[in-house]
UniProtKB/TrEMBL annotation:
One of its GO terms (biological process) is NADH dehydrogenase complex assembly. Signal peptide: none annotated. Residues 262-420 form the NADH:ubiquinone oxidoreductase intermediate-associated protein domain. It comes from the Eukaryota. InterPro entries: Galactose-bd-like_sf, NAD(P)-bd_dom, NAD(P)-bd_dom_sf, NADH-UbQ_OxRdtase-assoc_prot30. This is NAD(P)-binding Rossmann-fold superfamily protein. GO terms for molecular function: unfolded protein binding. Residues 123-196, 443-542 form the NAD(P)-binding domain.
């Protein structure tokens, strides 16, 4: 029988289909016995595949390889393919195998992996919000805006600011997918208060302050905006924000271990004989609780040399864009492993990869920053791969391999058995190293509230000496009461936060001397521009996290504050103020105090 008839006789399930000529790969056939044919792939690097004419089904004994003459387990090969959602493109495998032996190593530097540093500003068409947008843009920080009215937002902010169209009072308009990539939020949403008699188109009466007009609520109620709106906003962003304790992807907390399905993915897919497995050890962790175990035996026979375990594709991609990397808790054995992260549902595709070392004889935490990931396909760097997208993670993989990347060998590789217990895999957040304007490091939620939120119900308080909003709290739909409830939602959410409580807002320029205080006791005024700068500074400050504070200018209400535009005051170092503040002080402590004499 000639070669063409031999190849034509291959069944669809036969690996002879791998021999389709492509890219210079030569296929030839040779007769072995009356009932057997052997397909050669033109190089001793490839498996020699023997099949029986008597049966179209291949058995393990009928698959022989050159390197070491080790039997290739085709049954395990087929199981592997179908475990991970079906087989990959077989031609692509052949091309990749050829290039791995004949192609030159990559000399081009791959694209740097980046994570998002977008700041979301809500209430951006208000007096404070639009100034926050302006401050961020001047600092070169990417901004996204949540707005109800497109035309109003465009007229105020310009055509280039990315918009999310939504209303915090309407949960169905806040699709969590729209908030992917957000690492920081400045929330300046506030219920609208205006004069009963109406206002000018540019709201001149409102800008003078509530003490100069008889106020009423315009639009949705304080409960809808300050409380329900806050609930809706937190729910929308919480799935994509970075919590300070990280996000557990694998571990034995509740039922989390059951949400990830691991399977072995070894060099059997390329003709090798290495074998690994994933197990759960009921008492294997450092606290004698359950832990995962990646174990196996690695061999270089048949040109193999790697074992791995990989998760099935996640039903819903993990959005880790608010985090900085992956942290593994492992019991090391002194070997060097790989973490591979994929952002595509394709089975046979680029994996964003980083190697990590372990120390023998003890539990340790290993951090793999997203910025260290390299786009790799079959141990070759892919220089034209898209940047790593942390908002669309579809699977994880742990690997022990003879190869690093581009022909470099793993210095810790040895053949034989190995074990790597790992008790958890979580996304982590870096803490800022420098205090000012480090926007890439940790999620922050900065909220603009109001001084006076604890005072309407405070025992013994002389309301006649309080600002109008405190005196008129009930008449204004319990505005301050619901602002306080909204604050409490933030404090209870687990999101790293800063709550700024400005005193009466003015249109004066920033630059006046300031007083920061806690406990909700001070009164006075402060520039909207100054509040915007404080909010932006708080985004980057570790000393502002978990703190609630009031702030005002030291300039009396009766004195206007002006500056010389040609010689403006220097911008303040707000870090000095943040460092003096304490966590846990809200002013609610006084609500349970013994009533004082008025």
């Amino acid at each position: 029988m000639n070669c063409s008839s031999c190849c034509a006789a291959a069944t669809p399930s036969s690996p002879a289909l791998l021999a389709r000529p492509r890219g210079g790969l030569a296929a030839s056939c040779s007769t072995t016995t009356a009932n057997q044919k052997v397909l050669f792939l033109g190089s001793k690097q490839f498996p020699r595949i023997t099949y029986s004419r008597a049966s179209s089904r291949l058995s393990r004994r009928e698959v022989i390889a050159f390197a070491g003459q080790q039997p290739w387990d085709i049954g395990r090969f087929v199981k592997t393919l179908y475990f991970f959602n079906g087989p990959p493109n077989l031609l692509k495998i052949v091309e990749s195998i050829i290039s791995s032996f004949t192609g030159p190593a990559s000399s081009e530097v791959p694209k740097k992996m980046e994570t998002s540093d977008v700041v979301l500003v809500t209430g951006a068409t208000g007096g404070v919000g639009r100034r926050v947008v302006d401050v961020l843009q001047k600092k070169g920080v990417p901004v996204r805006v949540l707005a109800r009215n497109v035309d109003k937002a465009r007229s105020m902010l310009g055509p280039d600011v990315p918009l999310i169209i939504g209303d915090v009072t309407k949960e169905d308009t806040l699709d969590p997918k729209l908030f992917k990539g957000i690492k920081k939020v400045v929330n300046a949403v506030s219920v609208i208060v205006g004069p009963k008699e109406g206002d000018t188109p540019d709201r001149q009466k409102y800008k003078q302050g509530i003490k100069f007009f008889e106020p009423e609520i315009k639009g949705p109620s304080p409960e809808m905006v300050e409380y329900i709106g806050m609930q809706n906003l937190i729910n929308a962003i919480k799935s994509s924000v970075g919590l300070s304790e990280g996000k557990l992807l694998f571990g034995f907390k509740g039922n989390l271990s059951g949400e990830i399905v691991w399977g072995a993915l070894d060099d059997v897919v390329m003709g090798g004989v290495s074998e690994s497995t994933f197990q759960i050890l009921p008492t294997g962790s450092e606290s004698s609780g359950p832990t995962g175990l990646f174990k196996g035996t690695v061999s270089t026979s048949n040109n193999g040399g790697f074992t791995s375990i990989r998760t099935k594709n996640f039903t819903v991609p993990e959005d880790l864009s608010a985090y900085d990397g992956i942290e593994l808790r492992v019991n090391g054995d002194g070997r060097r492993y790989k973490l591979i992260i994929r952002t595509s549902y394709e089975w046979d595709t680029v994996g964003y990869t980083a190697s990590f070392n372990t120390t023998k004889g003890g539990w340790q935490s290993v951090k793999v920053p997203f910025s260290s990931l390299k786009p790799v396909f079959r141990a070759r760097t892919v220089t034209d791969a898209p940047p790593f997208d942390a908002s669309n993670i579809t699977s994880l993989q742990l690997m022990f391999s003879k190869f690093e990347y581009d022909g470099i060998l793993n210095p810790t590789f040895t053949e034989g058995p190995f074990e790597l217990p790992f008790s958890s895999i979580r996304a982590y957040i870096n803490e800022p190293i420098t205090p000012r304007f480090v926007y890439l490091l940790v999620f922050r939620f900065v909220h603009v509230s109001s001084a006076g939120v604890t005072r309407p119900e405070r025992p013994g308080l002389d309301l006649s000496k309080q600002p109008p909003a405190v005196r008129l709290n009930k008449e204004l739909g319990s505005i301050l009461t619901f602002k306080l409830k909204g604050e409490d939602l933030i404090r209870e959410s687990g999101i790293p936060y800063t709550i700024v409580r400005p005193c009466a807002l003015t249109e004066e320029p920033a630059g006046a001397d300031l007083m920061f205080d806690q406990g909700d006791n001070i009164t006075g005024k402060i520039s909207r521009e100054e509040v915007a700068r404080i909010c932006v500074a708080a985004l980057a400050s570790p000393d502002a996290v978990g703190k609630t504070f009031e702030v005002k200018s030291t300039v009396p209400f009766s004195e206007p504050y002006v500056i010389d535009p040609a010689n403006p005051p220097p911008e303040k170092d707000y870090e000095v103020y943040f460092k003096e503040l304490k966590e846990g002080i809200t002013g609610k402590e006084a609500l349970e105090a013994t009533p004082a004499q008025v």
